[in-house]
Amino acid sequence: MAITKTANDLIGTSASKQTVAASGTAIATARDVSDIIGIVIHCLVTYGATAPDSDPLIEIFTSPDNANFDTYAYVEEDVPRLVNSDRMVSIPLGPEIKYFKVKVTNGASQPIDVWISDVEMKNE
Question: What is the DSSP letter of 108?
């Protein structure tokens, strides 16, 4: 048995990041990961020339049935801001997750560009 790894774009792509407006949000479509043994969420934020006044918040919501998701995030992580740069955080999730979705909240008064992907590990 070998472990395979599959990468998926959840919000934006490496070639075309999604812009999240000032005080805006972006939410990925829910994913069924019931046969996955591990997941790592990668969140890349590109900041422009103006210093943001707030870190973006990445939240992961889980569900047992793809209908009822967490009221409060299962995991949340700030992406530290830095002018004219890319900043990345990685968030590991274990095999206990059946469905999940990712939400990015930009609390700043400037837009940001984001790319959120995952790598899913599976026994095959």
Answer: S
